[in-house]
Amino acid sequence: MSHKHDSTSSQIYRTESSSPGVLQDVSTPQLRKNRSFISVLGMSLAITAVPYGLGGPLMSSVYGGGQLSMFIGVLVVVLLQGAVAVSLGELASRYPTSSGVYYWSYRLTENKRYQHAMAYFTGWVWLIGNWTIALSVNFGFASLIVATVTMYRPEWTATANETLYVFFGICIFIFILCAAADKALPLVDTAAAIWSVVTTVAILIALSSTAKVGRHSPSYGLTHYDTNISGWGEFSFFIGLLPPAYALSAIGMVMSMTEECSKPEIEVPRAISMCIPIGGVSMLVFVLPICFTLPPLEDILAAPYGQALPFIIDTVTGSKPLSLTLLIMILMVTLFCSISITTTASRCTWALSRDGMLPFSQIWSRTLFNQPVYALALVTVIEICLGCVNLGSASAFTAFVSVGVIALACAYLIPIAISLAFGRTEVAKAKWHLGAIGTAANATSVCWILFQLVLFSMPSALPVTAETMNYASVVFVGFLVLCGVWYFAWGKRN
């Protein structure tokens, strides 16, 4: 990557007017600058949260055919998502602002007639992605908790309402933590990254040393592929890409922390790009022991609440105390992930409110003690309202995961595609850029994201049932319709 001096770079993201129709002046940051490269990288890894990011939606890899989808799927997604990460890094260096993708789209759109519409729709897609990906983490957290309890209390089965109450409690608890401990959050993110690594290594050792259901040969453990599980035949492999794509989908969310960094034009791009190789190694360390000790796929399909990971750990270790210890460690990883991802979602909400894109923006854009508490409260309320959809059904979690991945990917796509279409003239001026390989990285990103939009809208298995139906496209399109209505009712004139 290239680093070059640009005397105007510190002013690139600062517009000089807050008049109607112009993005809000951000020349005076309103948030505390307490983020370094290490803390931003720590937040990226905390959001990736490999034991949860891969383990939460692991059932999709089971439908994807098993070991081949798990192992090769990680390699494929790391490579493709790496292209997205470095493409975002260039843009983050050129336009370092918490407004992120929608401000980039605004600046990169050369036709001023379409600038505001492009910024508006990009911003709302970005916001939808932030809200739903944070929702998916907290909903997955609740599902993991009830699945863990069920493993040790088989006579107890959580109802849909009981799962929902656990989810509500998590949302409120995370709000309190994020609001009360803002100054400590950079340390929490660093600790979260370390804890994620510790948990991954613990799972590696525990599963490899116990293997109560046996160990598979290298050829079986790395290449076994059952095309009969999902009903998709040879296409099943791609269904199994959801877990690694989910784990790495939120890498760009740290852009919302830009104005809390002292040197954002360098620190943020480095953190986004470094998250991919580090996260990729962690994912391989996590998934390999699972591949070599995996119980029969048909047994995993019957796991409580569609959560494969608790079932696999309990079955492979054959020890209730050991598996409970590992699951508690995973729940701690999920807690840290929830804190980090809720924090970034609140910053995204605050940034859009600051630019007047949300109803009652004057409320959500307020800060209290230099932190966006009102935006944080809005994120929490939105999560709780959306969580009521499907009332805790197994298909709800897959839908929330899928729509989060789709929305974030779509938000990444727009500025990357615009930059590529106009010859990458703006990103070439950034302090951190890709140079000659940038065009290839951008083109790869565009193709991969377009494929994701289709892939993760598909049901996980055929024939389609209430349990395998993927409502992601319905949720996403519904949000876009509301976004369009709000634009023509209010946004176009303001």
User: Please, how many domains?
Assistant: 1
Mean pLDDT: 89
Within the CATH hierarchy, at the fold level, what is the topology?
A: Amino acid/polyamine transporter I
In which range does the helix fraction lie? 55-70%
How can the largest sheet be summarized? 2 strands, antiparallel
**What topology, given as strand order, has the largest sheet?**
1-2
Strand content of the residues, in percent? Answer: under 5%
Shape: globular
CATH superfamily: Amino acid/polyamine transporter I
What is the H/E string?
EHHHHHHHHHHHHHHHHHHEHH
**Number of beta strands:** 2
CATH architecture: Up-down Bundle
Biased composition (Polar residues): 8-26
Keywords: Membrane, Transmembrane, Transmembrane helix, Transport
Membrane topology: Multi-pass membrane protein
Organism: Fusarium odoratissimum (strain NRRL 54006)
